[in-house]
UniProtKB/TrEMBL annotation:
<protein>
    <recommendedName>
        <fullName>Heat-inducible transcription repressor HrcA</fullName>
    </recommendedName>
</protein>
<comment type="similarity">
    <text>Belongs to the HrcA family.</text>
</comment>
<keyword id="KW-0346">Stress response</keyword>
<dbReference type="GO" id="GO:0003677">
    <property type="term" value="F:DNA binding"/>
</dbReference>
<dbReference type="GO" id="GO:0045892">
    <property type="term" value="P:negative regulation of DNA-templated transcription"/>
</dbReference>
<keyword id="KW-0678">Repressor</keyword>
<dbReference type="InterPro" id="IPR029016">
    <property type="entry name" value="GAF-like_dom_sf"/>
</dbReference>
<dbReference type="InterPro" id="IPR036388">
    <property type="entry name" value="WH-like_DNA-bd_sf"/>
</dbReference>
<dbReference type="InterPro" id="IPR021153">
    <property type="entry name" value="HrcA_C"/>
</dbReference>
<keyword id="KW-0805">Transcription regulation</keyword>
<dbReference type="InterPro" id="IPR002571">
    <property type="entry name" value="HrcA"/>
</dbReference>
<dbReference type="InterPro" id="IPR036390">
    <property type="entry name" value="WH_DNA-bd_sf"/>
</dbReference>
<comment type="function">
    <text>Negative regulator of class I heat shock genes (grpE-dnaK-dnaJ and groELS operons). Prevents heat-shock induction of these operons.</text>
</comment>
<dbReference type="Pfam" id="PF01628">
    <property type="entry name" value="HrcA"/>
</dbReference>
<dbReference type="InterPro" id="IPR023120">
    <property type="entry name" value="WHTH_transcript_rep_HrcA_IDD"/>
</dbReference>
<keyword id="KW-0804">Transcription</keyword>
<feature type="domain" description="Heat-inducible transcription repressor HrcA C-terminal">
    <location>
        <begin position="121"/>
        <end position="342"/>
    </location>
</feature>
Length: 360
């Protein structure tokens, strides 16, 4: 049994409320999102559409608290929404605004065409998104999907090797990984020759599939060390940067400046420590692939934010083939102005997708 909800399914909570309960719930959440503090019954008596007593409103609040939608941070201090309540509000009552002309103009200026400097453009998008929303922004940059032209392995130390990837469009990437024990110059050359014999016209992801198939059929032709290097050398496409080149985070100061309590500051530091250390951040943001459009994660709905009490509004962006290649998002406290931020994130994702599609 979760948060006191017994007979009413979570998806039907809002629809099962009567008009008064729905209005009390909506005004409590909106008051909390606006002020960050609890909303009391006397405050609501002045804003309700029908004239009701403070005692009546308190009774409704108690019912909503029983359902797990509201909470009492202190005795007689009013109510705030729980994470479940925020989720129910976002799913059933949130009124999403429109993107203003000044926001459109700023984002259009931000994504202006600078030739092939995609990374620079996405960096500016992160800064602009952070400034517009007064939160921290996330931009997950797309992986490089150009066909490969050449692969080379270079030994750096007994436990470190470099793979040099030359793409058909002229870009070069260097990635360091840990090779199998006992590698020799000859096994490095043999592994590179094997890969280069398969590489023509293939992207990294396509090459990986081909290599896995060829290793099974041609293992006997390969030196065992070279075979191990090729298999473990998947590090150069499975490690950091495999699915996405990098995660751009901007606006840490916005979150820190919004909080004065020590507990809040500690939670924000925890959040940024997670963002800096989590190797599976790309997997988290790949949740956006479950569907097009904006997704909202509130508080503990995802393990990344379970300790920080933060929310994330995130949307994928796509290339010309409608394939998801990255994501943009905004992190903030759970009392984010969702109605304003959702359309900004959505508009930014669409704009970035169109800009990158035009570069193809």
């Amino acid at each position: 049994m979760e948060n006191g909800i017994r007979m009413i399914e979570r998806s039907n909570v809002i629809s099962e409320m009567n008009d008064r309960s729905r209005e009390v719930f909506r005004r409590v959440v909106e008051g909390y999102l606006d002020s960050g503090g609890p909303v009391g019954s006397r405050t609501l008596t002045r804003s309700m559409s029908e004239k009701v007593s403070a005692a009546t409103i308190r009774n409704v609040m108690q019912d909503l608290e029983y359902l797990g939608l509201l909470d009492s941070p202190h005795v007689s201090a009013g109510r705030i929404p729980t994470h479940l309540g925020l989720r129910m509000f976002v799913d059933g009552l949130l009124e999403v605004g429109t993107v203003t002309d000044d926001v459109r103009e700023k984002m259009h200026h931000t994504v202006r065409d600078d030739g092939n400097d995609v990374t620079g453009m996405l960096d500016r998008v992160g800064s602009a998104l952070s400034g517009l929303t007064q939160g921290a922004s996330l931009v997950l940059t797309p992986k490089h999907e150009a066909p490969l032209k050449h692969v080379e392995f270079v030994s750096l130390a007994p436990d470190r090797a470099l793979v040099v990837l030359v793409f058909a469009d002229g870009q070069v990437e260097n990635r360091v990984f840990t090779p199998p024990v006992g590698q020799t110059p000859s096994s490095l050359r043999e592994a590179a020759n094997f890969l280069n014999s398969l590489i023509e016209g293939k992207t990294l992801s396509e090459l990986k599939v081909t290599v896995e198939r060829e290793i099974k059929t041609r293992r006997r032709e390969l030196d065992s060390l070279a075979a191990d290097l090729i298999e473990n050398g998947d590090a150069f496409w499975e490690g950091d940067g495999a699915h996405y080149e990098r995660l751009i985070v901007r606006g840490r100061s916005h979150l820190l400046s919004q909080s004065s309590e020590a507990a809040d500051l500690d939670r924000i530091r925890t959040l940024f420590d997670d963002l800096e250390k989590k190797r599976d951040i790309a997997e988290f943001l790949e949740l956006t692939e479950d569907g097009e459009g904006v997704r909202i994660f509130i508080g503990s709905e995802n393990k990344l934010f379970s300790l920080s009490g933060s929310s994330l509004v995130v949307s994928p962006y796509m290339n010309a083939d409608r394939k998801i290649i990255g994501a943009v998002g905004v992190i903030g406290p759970t009392r984010l102005n969702y109605g304003r931020i959702v359309p900004i994130v959505d508009y930014t994702a669409q704009l970035v997708g169109r800009m990158l599609s035009n570069k193809v």
